User: Fold these one by one.
Assistant:
Number 1:
Amino acid sequence: MEKYIIALKTDEDLGKEDFVRSLIHSWCEEIDERLRPEYYGLGEPVRKSISEDGVEAVIQTWLTKMRPMLRRKSKPKFIVDINWRKEKGLDPRIFPWGCYVWLDSVAGDTLALKLFKFLILQFRPAFGSITFESENREKHFITYKTNVGTVEQFIGIDVGETLPGIYWVTYFGPWSVKKIGRHLFEKVPVAGVETLAGGFLITSYERSKDIGSELAKKIEKKLIVHFGPANFFDKSSLDIEK
């Protein structure tokens, strides 16, 4: 079954107690019941029960042992992985941290968008997107051979010199808006535009079922031209052998 991929990139301190408590309480107790996580853990398999252990156990796991992964077993199912650590170290990326959700497509577009907007308000990302798992691989997954064998990896997903791309739904946070130019968001071609958390939520085409279609590719290309091709990663221009 196809899955939505919800991705957000941020430089927020995800170890602050206020942030952790707000996120976990809101996600487990306040958001739409169909989007609440049911299990947590420090890695897969994610099988500690939130209903049995309590929300405070999830919070303390995050604060004392790094962040937990979250999981929902009831429909619509999802897995959440939050890429974060206490020290940035030598990591050169401007926005090194991320939140990734693999959400079953049975959720439907309305719930997927509701979860995306909730996470934007919590994480205050520089950039975010919703697409399908298959398109994420098409746009960002490469394989190449080295002297030790075949390497597989996702590329172009970080925010910095370029942005990852344009998708079914794309969120440009304040940093990305400044990079591209706020004036270009005043009249966006072919897309729905919504202001959110100081940035802009761009819906390229109405339904996720159009992801990967010729229509979708045409609209995404038009938006990339509008915002400036140099601002976006382009896998087709990559010299993989080099």
Number 2:
Amino acid sequence: MSFRLMVTLSMLVLFYPGILEAQENVPHKEHSVKHEKFTPHSTIGLVLSHANVFSGQDENGNKKTLDMPSWGLDYTYHFSPKWAAGLHTDIILESFKVEEHGDGETIERSYPIAPALMGIYKPSHHWSLMIGMGAEFAKEENFALTRLGVEYGAEIRNGWEVFGSLAYDIKWRAYDTWLLGLGISKAFGGGHKHE
């Protein structure tokens, strides 16, 4: 999947929820409303994303914005309709060089993996706001990180959901990364049930 296509699809999912909610706004023939009963449950998600680093360097040491493929694996436990917690892990699929915050020293990174424990607040059925702490691990050096994120999800059926995500990783005393992704997840161990 090309980067432009992935960005276009992500933007549609993130910023035009009317497309995905159109069917929900059609009144039922009998004018009845279905209510959902919440049951605590877990989800596992797989995300295809692009990591963007604005302080990257090319082979000659010149400043360059890096755009790299990345995978994400997310485990989330939903313990109430509005709150959840999880372990979200991102893996950048390339080796690269970046300029360190502050002194401008060059940092080398080889296929870094970045797990973070996330707290998640859902202001609505589709939107999730996230904040968490974790670390980025690579053979050269490890960095603590803070992750901020937002997701928009649309349920397909039988506990399956597609979602768009935007996350910002602040690697302490190192560099920052933007991640834009498109994912799919599956709920298990409970889930929503219609009354």
Number 3:
Amino acid sequence: MQIIGVTGGIGAGKSTVCLIFKALGAPIYDADSRAKWLLAHDPRLREQVTHHFGQATYLSDGSLDRAHLAAAVFGHQEKRELLNSLVHPRVGEDTRAWVMAQTGRFPYLIKEAALMIEAGSHRELDQLLVVTAPLDLRISRVQARDPQRSETEIRAIIAAQMPEADKIKLANHVIHNDGQQLLIPQVLALHRRWTGQ
């Protein structure tokens, strides 16, 4: 059973690619969603985050105040790195437990994460798939998905992420989600390779 990492910059189309893999039967671990869940529900992580980012990180009902945490780390590299140093190891533990629970279910598993390479978790995987798209297309996709974000904010997020070219250098496979090449045949080709079909 192979564990395949799927990553790419914001707006590249990682989630769309993973939806196709899911439709083909592949179990998907969405690291970004699990990180949000762990931030809200894991007692140890909640305690660490509160210690470093203050009581205001969690609302009176116990839920995570995402706006407060985002404001605390956005544009502050040291604080962002601190938050990642708390969250990424916990996500790693959660991933390993998930993988153990999937044993024998399918020939390959997918772990989707935006900061997979930055967190170093790609080293624990069998193969790395990077989803790419042109910058202007990525911006327009994010604007359509998150209309509250300005183009300036989106460009700042992209600038803070690892350059796409650097991710591609580490990739075993690349899917081009550029609106020119069909997405499903690219995913199917990898699915057939990993299932031996």
